[in-house]
Amino acid sequence: QVQLVESGGGLVQPGGSLRLSCAASGFTFARAVMNWYRQAPGKERELVAAIRSAGGSTNYHDSVKGRFTISRDDAKNTVYLQMNSLKPEDTAVYFCNAWSGWNVYWGQGTQVTVSS
User: Fold this and answer.
1) Is 68 within 8 Å of 85 (Cβ atoms)?
2) What are phi and psi for residue 44, nearest 5 degrees?
3) What confidence category does residue 74 fall into, taking pLDDT thresholds of 50, 70 and 90?
């Protein structure tokens, strides 16, 4: 059974940092492309960051470049999203996502709120 379990969300002040984690199981993690998406109220879900397998090249949404870093630990089947210099517009539910062969998997999401 495939599981993607996110953690690390919460309330943070503008300029602060959070680190999201996503623990995966039930598929071959090391071969999967791992992604973080987010969805703000009233907006469509958008791809924030992606990391490929075997070398881990990365891509970022323009709005988070230079502030967010995606990384993976294949030994722990975990993908991370380090978020620095957070802004109110980063407020959203953040979802972990895996592309494994022809399959796409989603986590349940974790809320990130940036507010003073």
Assistant:
1) no
2) -80, 155
3) very high
The backbone region for 113, taken as left when phi is positive above 0, alpha when psi lies in -120 to 50, beta otherwise, is beta
The per-residue pLDDT for 95 is 98
Look at strands 110-114 and 10-12 and give their pairing: parallel
Q: What is the bridge-based pairing of β-strands 92-100 and 33-39?
A: antiparallel
Cβ neighbours for 94, distance < 8 A, ≥ 6 positions apart: 6, 9, 20, 36, 37, 38, 48, 81, 109, 110, 111, 112
Q: CA–CA separation, 105 vs 35, rounded Å?
A: 10
Residues 7-46: pLDDT tens digits?
A: 999 999 999 999 999 999 999 999 999 999 999 999 999 9
74, burial (CB in 10 Å: exposed 0-12, middle 13-18, buried 19+): middle
Mean pLDDT of the chain: 96
Which residue type, as a one-letter code, is found at position 49?
A: A
